[in-house]
């Protein structure tokens, strides 16, 4: 290996280690070597065998090298304006919730235009392993789900389950099907400590108890326990609310859920359950009344609504590349605060009259952006539960703020780790200062320049980095982009159709 390659590989290893939050000493312990050896590796002063590279990649859960197909990388030729129009795809988070909810139904569920993303693929692998038959019906992404009379939970694909946080949403449906079962620990994005205790608060009233040992959630259900009073969620989380709703859907009685999330994926779940005959009052509010059914056996056809986070991703790409772009089928009721903030910052855009999504409920618009001179907002930008600015849309404002004149304070009060990933924009020439684990100060305007770097391990910051590379002068390389494929379908190809120049490649 040449010194140049050793140095570049060392930088990748260093970045992957830091993203995992490890010191050199911690990595050395896992590799059974010394801290000084790790230091030499990261400085490019140590020859490396393929075996050692593979071991490092496995230790860091970052596909630096692979002796098989290898990790997927993106090479981005930046500085190109986008043009044309693009449709927003269906909601990733609604799709995974509906896959879990299909376990409530003994009949056939057909979901329309499901996003064919890695998160969905992992859940389908889990469902197939326990006996559920799933069939892609066409290239449009229509998916048929037929459950067996009896689930084979002992055959669950633990590796697939461990790679998705959505597996936690099996608790609500399964507690009505099994007296005892096990689930692997929930995986997914590296966003800091995410306790399952709020889920337990929501599900204990249905008789569920869970012990976490040996990498498994061990669940027991006491059928004598049923909700005797309203369930008050201690966290207004989306998946917590979905778990509570799914548990209530098969409870033969009326369940009141308070402090519920009214977010887009929760609403899609409620609309689906309505087709199953489960009446839910208060959809779109923080107080839900679920009229459950002990037995559900319905053949149902449902089209989840479009994804507001993908819409925000495309909107951000248009803004930072100073492009005139039309984003069709944007779910405006879940973007109204974001659009209001962007208007305050000086965004020039048009929006069409509203029309309904295929589910007949969700309001959509077409948005057309024009190149704009943005300025920093007067107040900080922070997320709030719906109808506030969406938590998953917050990271995109880091890239937007970097192109605006002035200083923008971004406060991510939920996740204790995610804000630090926004400082990756500094590698592209940004000026992002981490004030504490939850806050960053972004100073603009920024003239991004190309670089090579590891993909952040959290989905939205990873896409923010890709978008900044699209605006950067020169060529950039974003390495190991599996996390982007978890949440977006063919993102690079779709951006290329608008005029971007993004090449997908693997190492030899």
Protein model, in words:
By secondary structure, the chain is of the alpha+beta class. The chain has three domains: 2-60, lambda repressor-like DNA-binding domains (434 Repressor (Amino-terminal Domain), Orthogonal Bundle), CATH 1.10.260; 72-89 and 307-506, Alpha-beta prism (UDP-n-acetylglucosamine1-carboxyvinyl-transferase, Chain); 92-302, Enolpyruvate transferase domain (UDP-n-acetylglucosamine1-carboxyvinyl-transferase, Chain, Alpha-beta prism). Helix content is 32%, strand content 21%. The protein contains 18 helices and 23 strands. Strands 2, 14, 15, 16 and 17 form a five-stranded mixed β-sheet that branches. Strand 9, helix 10 and strand 10 (254-258) form a beta-alpha-beta unit. Helix 9 (197-203) runs parallel beside helix 10. It is globular. The model is unreliable at 188-194 (pLDDT under 50). It is found in: Cytoplasm. Residues 13-67 form the HTH cro/C1-type domain. GO terms for molecular function: DNA binding; UDP-N-acetylglucosamine 1-carboxyvinyltransferase activity.
